[in-house]
Amino acid sequence: MEAIIQDIQGIPLNHYILLSSIIFTIGVIGVLIRRNVIIIMMSIELMLNAVNLLLAAFSAYHGDASGQVFVFFIMALAAAEVAVGLAIIVMVYRNTKSIDINLLNKLKW
After folding, report:
1. Which of 53, 54, 56, 26 minimizes the C-alpha distance to 39?
2. Of 50, 62, 72, 102, which residue is the least packed, with the fewest Cβ within 10 Å?
3. Using CA atoms, how far apart are residues 62 and 57, in angstroms rounded to an integer?
4. What is the DSSP letter of 102?
5. Domains of the chain by range and CATH?
6. Which parts pass through the membrane (predicted)?
7. 4 falls in which pLDDT band (50, 70, 90)?
């Protein structure tokens, strides 16, 4: 049964799942705990990379390239998220002279 679970490189699929779960958990904790916008965006990128790793691992395991196509689209989405997020951070910094999200209470009614 172990020979079936091994991919081309000889690393079991369970190791990819465990590593992706750890990376995703670190990203979720970073989003929930930190209040710095840059660190929150980095945590979101970490979560997207964990999903990319898992999609690529399952794609190699099943011998299907559709997972790798999804990885490409997620990478494009991450690049767009960084561009828009960086523009938002610059505008927030210009208005509040800080990137702490707790200071954004000006947006409340």
Report:
1. 26
2. 102
3. 9
4. G
5. 2-101 (1.10.287.3510)
6. 16-34, 46-63, 69-93
7. very low
Phi first, then psi: what are they for 100, rounded to 5°?
-80, 125
Exposure of 66 by Cβ count < 10 A (0-12 exposed, 13-18 middle, 19+ buried)?
Answer: exposed
**64: exposed, middle or buried (C-beta count within 10 Å: 0-12, 13-18, 19+)?**
exposed
Query: Six-digit token pair at 47?
Result: 């979560």
The Cα 75–Cα 21 span in angstroms is: 19
Counting Cβ atoms within 10 Å, is residue 8 exposed (0-12), middle (13-18) or buried (19+)? Answer: exposed
* Per-residue pLDDT tens digits for 53-97: 998 888 888 888 888 888 899 889 888 888 888 888 888 788 777
> Of 8, 3, 22, nearest to 57 (Cα)?
8
* Nearest C-alpha neighbor of 5 from the set 55, 57, 80, 81: 57
